[in-house]
Amino acid sequence: MVSNKCIASLLLLVLAVNICIASDCREKKAKAEQMEREGVMDVFPPSCEENGNYMKIQCMFTGCYCADVETGTMIGDVVPWDEGRPVCD
């Protein structure tokens, strides 16, 4: 039988992992914004949700694309600005 302490420990571990994954967007955004302040050109800070996940639609100089909300990885192709915004499921 699993003790309550083991269950509580497992829940805390899962929560800690979720917090680390969710903060990835905020970390990358902060780094990109620092690079912009230092004069680096063509830097595009990611757009983040309140909970720290990446927003489904990310945009850059050439247009917007669908992104994985946990990793920020591009899904599909960039939709040029003059062709509207991508439809992300």
From TrEMBL:
The keyword Disulfide bond applies. The keyword Isomerase does not apply. It comes from the Eukaryota. Residues 22-88 form the Thyroglobulin type-1 domain. Keywords: Disulfide bond, Signal. This is Thyroglobulin type-1 domain-containing protein. Residues 1-22 form the signal peptide.
